[in-house]
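Ticket 4471: requesting a sanity check on a complex prediction with iron/sulfur cluster. Repro inputs:
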Amino acid sequence: MKKTGKGDYHAVSLSGGKDSTAMLLMMIEKGMPVDGVFWADTGMEFPEMYRHIGKVDAYLFRERGLHIHVLRHPRGFEWLMFDEPKQKKSAVERRIRDGVPLCGNGWPGIRVRWCTGQLKTHLITKEVNRLKGECNAVSYVGIAHDEQERCKGERYPLVEWQVTEEQALRYCYGKGFDWGGLYEIYHRCSCWCCPFQRIDELRKLRKHHPELWGRMLEMDARALGQFGETPLGMFRKGWTVGALDERFEAEEQGRKFCRHRKKEPGAEEPALLFCTETGILGADAANQESEGFL
Ligand code: SF4
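Returned structure tokens:
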């Protein structure tokens, strides 16, 4: 690893999105030291994002003679989702009690967002902390000025320069980095299979990236087969990817789409959870509406 004369190591965390990309490009343009650029690949990035990272890497090499350090979990997203064996005694006991298989974490959920830590933040934090310990590293994170409440003790050049998200995107476009048009379609460009996306992003995914939507349907079927309609097997509370697929299909065809809660033993009629004609019904739907999912 290359070090600067002062003994500091200038480490840039690249998410691949507009803010961290703008930060890196601006640091290069301003002649600031850059010793290492770190990007965590979840394996579930858009194809356009992989091409973007390749383009940034070529630019970085041309300007500074460096390549991006790509960090990856040794087994990846789907292994963690379906195959990681549970080892902690309490987790094993809970799963046995609840009748849930002993392997796999299922879809990431609000309460157990296993993916961000294992596939992104832990990988980068571990590397940056090692560099801080070994060579007094300074870490640069791409948070825009209008999101500065997320800052936590690293260097945030975009905040220092008062660069907003919108300005960051325009700057990247001006430098010829356009993500193959991803930001013209989506609001966010991280994992395409993220269960925390807004409903409209999923609708657009189905339309603009049908091959990725097809992979989501395969993951959905596997999750339901392995975990059933538990929080681990459901893509979002009350929704499978299959149910969303039916809903989007109905919307496209101008048809009414109704989704019912599974019939409880002894109940006369299953409760109506969602209907495109009558609007939103049911407590689950109210929760999801407040999360921006409906
Ligand atoms: S984008 Fe979504 S799926 Fe990907 S790591 Fe973040 S929370 Fe998890």
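Notes from triage: Residues 1-184 form a domain with the Rossmann fold fold (CATH 3.40.50.620). Leaving this open until the requester confirms.
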